[in-house]
Amino acid sequence: MTTDNFPEGAKTDFSEDMSYGDYLHLERVLNAQELRSTDHNEMLFIIQHQTSELWIKLMLHELRAATAAIAADQLGSAFKMLARVSRILEQLVHAWDVLATLTPSEYSNMRPHLGSSSGFQSYQYREVEFMLGNKNRSMLRTHRDSPLALQKLEAALTAPSLYDEALNLLERRGFALDRGTLDYTNPHEPRAEVEAAWLAIYRQPEKYWDLYQLAEELIDLEDTFRQWRFRHVTTVERIIGFKHGTGGTAGVSYLRKMLDVVLFPEVWKVRTDL
C-alpha cells in the first residue's frame, strides 16, 4: 500500500501561469555552464565564479542605492542596504571554502582550458572597487574591448564614491572639511580635518548618533571586504602557489598588495586616536 504525500492544494498546472522556473529563467541559468574540458572539476570552477558574479551584481545594486540614500540624507535606508552588502560579502568569503577543495593537481589539469580569462577581468568587481573609493583609471584598459563594461566603469570612476558621499554629508552637517571642488576620479587621500570630524563624532555618539552609526556601517563593510580579499589570496596560493595568473597578473604577490588598501582610512584611525 502506498501513501500519496503530495502537498494538498499544491499547484501542478502551469500551462497558463508562471512557474518558479519561469520566474527565475532557470533554463538559461542552469544551462550557462559550458564546459571546455572533460575535467570533472571544471563545473565547480565555473559555478563558483558565476555565483560570485551574481552576488556582486546584488552588491552593486545595494551600493548604488546606499550611496544615493546618503546623498539624500536618508540614512535609515542606507544603513539597511550597507548591512546587506556586508552580509553579501560574508557569503563571498565562505564561497572560497568551496573552491579551496580544488587541489593543485586538479587545477593544473583544467587550467589550459581557461585561456587568458581571469577574475582580474571582472568589470563588476572593478565597479565595486570604484564605488568603494579605490579608483584607478588605468584599470579601464582591461575593458576597452567591452563598450558596456567600459561605460559602466567610466561612470563609476567619475561619480562620488560611497565614502565621498559620507564626507559630503559631514560637510552638510556643519563639519569644516574644506574639500572644495573635487576630482572624484582620484582615490581618497587621508586628511587631518576628516579625521578630526570622525573623532568628534566618536567622542559624542549620542549627539551624532546617525553619523556614528554610519561610521560603524562603513567599518563593518570594510572589515568583511578585507576578509574577502584575504580568503581570495589564501585560496589562490593554496591552489596555484606563486604562479602568474591566467590573465597575466603576478597572482598571489599582486593580491597581497591589495590587502594593504584602506578604503575609509580616517574612520579606522579614530580607533587609535580615541
Protein described:
- By secondary structure, this protein is mostly helical.
- Helix 9 crosses helix 12 and helix 10 packs antiparallel against helix 11.
- The model has no long low-confidence stretch (mean pLDDT 93).
- The protein contains twelve helices and no strands.
- It has helices at 20-24, 26-30, 42-71, 75-99, 104-110, 123-131, 147-158, 162-172, 192-203, 209-240, 252-258, 265-273.
Task: Work out the radius of gyration.
Answer: 22 Å
Count of alpha and pi helical runs: 12
Helix content: 55-70%
Shape: globular
H/E topology pattern: HHHHHHHHHHHH
Mean pLDDT: 93
> Beta-strand level of the residues, as a percent range?
under 5%
> Total strand count, please?
0
Alpha carbon gap, first and last residue: 74 Å
Please state the structural category.
mainly alpha
Major beta sheet, specifics?
A: none
Q: Spans of 5+ residues with little confidence (pLDDT < 50)?
A: none
Short overview:
The protein is mainly alpha-helical. It has helices at 20-24, 26-30, 42-71, 75-99, 104-110, 123-131, 147-158, 162-172, 192-203, 209-240, 252-258, 265-273.
